[in-house]
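1st attempt posting a full record on here, be nice pls
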Amino acid sequence: MTLPSQQNHFHDSTRAQQLQEAAYHLKNTGHFSEADEHLQEAIKILFSANQLAEASTLIRDQLSAPWISVAQRSHWHRYMGTVLHFMGDDQTATQHYHQALSLAQDAGDQTSLMNAYQSLGCVIQGQDDENAKTSFEHSLAIARELDDHAMIATNCYQLGLLFQGQGDYNTAKKFYVDSLSARKSIGDQKGLGATYHQLGIIYHVQGDYRTAQRLYDQSLVISNRLDDASGVAASLGQLGSIAQEQGDYTRARKLYEASLDISKRLGNQAHTAALHQNLGNLAFLQGDHESARSLYEDSLAIKEKIGDRSGLASTYHQMGALAYDSGDYATARSHYERALAISQSVGSPTSTASALHELAMLAQDQGDYEEAQSRYAQSLSIFEELGDRSGMATSSLQLGIVAKDAGNDQLARSRYEQALAIYEGLGDHIGMALAYHHLAVLAQLCGEAPQAISVLLDKALDHAALVSTATKAGQVMSSVADRSAEIGCIPLLARSHAWLLGRTGSGEEMRRAIDTSLLMLQRLRADGYTNDVEAAVDSVLSRLSPAEAERFQDLLSR
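the predicted structure (as tokens):
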């Protein structure tokens, strides 16, 4: 494996040198434009070969040349910015991109201006997202004027990533859809695969597993067609996550292990570490704490080796959850605090907020409402600074639960309503289901009329039904069923159990849920509530696919 790499390196160096020599000859004979083109080609070769030091030297020589035009100087500053970015010097790279922008404006070169804005956005993304967004928007506007579909696709994709990172999933979706359209028009298969994958992640996060799976499958087909092993591994891993969240642990394990095999073969240690963690999560869910701990330790070892500090924080986070589930609160706190310290040291506000959130939940469960409120508030403040609306909603919801547990019903309701408003803006049906459910629980605790409670529970069920395959949706449905029984709302009781029966999935937990719902519907029929049961069944059937409806009818006939 070493020899071909060395041969390619030699070939690349030789070809780049030949281009440079030809360029210097052209320059000496007054053919400056042709010389510049040769040198640009040499830079591309050196960059592709990861010969960044050689590339930077060549670029500096060009930038000092008095004969290059303003437009050409803009190109070379952009090239230097890109090389410096990959060398890890983003600060100096940003300076070169700004110089490229200024020169492109002076030259009236719209193409260079478009490219410089796009490059600047990429290098400052994650550090200054607002200015990154502005840069991508400027680049996109020019790309649309020039009818440059490749750049339209690229900028829409980058804007999608930005809004996705901020939890604004609806806006992200719009940009991804625009990116897909542009990529289809130019036949960019690799770009299509990447965009389908990202869209899948959004629907995945929102609990729409059916749509997410379809998008991951589309990405997988493209990756297989292109022989893109890395893309195949990524899609298999995400499909494994969906299977896990639907309770199909056998399928999840097979998909994770298939993805892991590819990642190991590719030498992709970061993805290998992530899959060890995923397999650890799976073992955790199945109650195999020993295997989970071993897999988490494997993940930690790899992340330590490759210096993945952010990844370490994530694994310590999961180890904290494992310890907490085992009743070892001291160890859980230690792991969460370690995750927090690492997140703060690497300057990762999202991971910091997540660690604060978990520490708050630990304090809340131990009855320390003051600490819980403080940590949730810190987490909320970070999410607000980031513009992460999904995180804001989650923290607001948890602050509502703390307020309820502390006996402050008015504050609890206010927090729940804040969370609900954000979830509505995001189109997050799981979030809306949870918010309405907590509002119903609060209404019941406050002694409100059964009719008022049933209205809130009905809304919770409606939103859960829209993403019925999600595990959390099933949990909401089960709770709605329990509370419907408590307040004596038979139509809602029947409908919640009908929806529980209509969910797809496998595993022991799903089989128990099916048996419970079948028994309840049979009992309601026997007690004379046949009309309520039939109405509930019809409402579910009307929203199922033909295959799902057939399965549903088969279950009812048992």
